[in-house]
Specification:
Structural class: mainly alpha
Helix content: over 70%
Number of helices: 10
Largest sheet: none
Strand content: under 5%
Length: about 240
Amino acid sequence: MNNLTAIKKTAKLTGLLYFLLALAAIYSYMYVSPKTMVAGDMVATAKKMIDNEFLFRTSIASDIITNILFVILIIFLYRLFRQVHELLALFMVGLAFVAIPVSFIGESLRLIALEIFKGNLLRSFSTEQALEVSTTLLKVDSYTGQLVTFHWGLWLIPMGWLVYRSGFIPKILGILLFVNGLGYMISSITFILFPESLPAVSKIVYPTYFIGELPLIFWLMIKGIRSNYKLKIEPSMA
């Protein structure tokens, strides 16, 4: 297998992994969350979580699978882009990995909240006290997710540069990844500095969450690399 064939194979496998990760994330956030969470009403949330307990647990299992796929994806992305600029590819990997342990902490908090709702923990607490603790745990999970969103955006910046300079993926996809990453970062910074403005800002930046990664996923899965690409090594950013 020559280097060009190996790159194309790696690109297509990367796209497939990225696609599977996206499906798992969509299942958890767009299908399960509306069926188990009620914004601003923790009593209703507790009821929905208990009534749909297995569904709720599948979302946690899905998130664990997502993290495993993410680790594999990052390794494949490094293999794909290290020829473009190895140091920047390593930087991309480091930024991406930051979110993984934070995600596992969030899953633990959600499981604890479920057990409290079911009455298996904090049995000496009154119903109101237990509900308050569960509410706090779910808020910590939500706030942590908002903060780690910054890293979700930050790691897309070096990846956007690598895509742009790669030569085997259209430059426009690199630019769109920059926009995608900035959207995540703007949302997170707004949450930190101007939380009251987050709903309005989120409506503006929400479309950017899909503008870069989704086109890249389908390009990698379907095309892999440009048919007229000629292998070259760029050892520096200059």
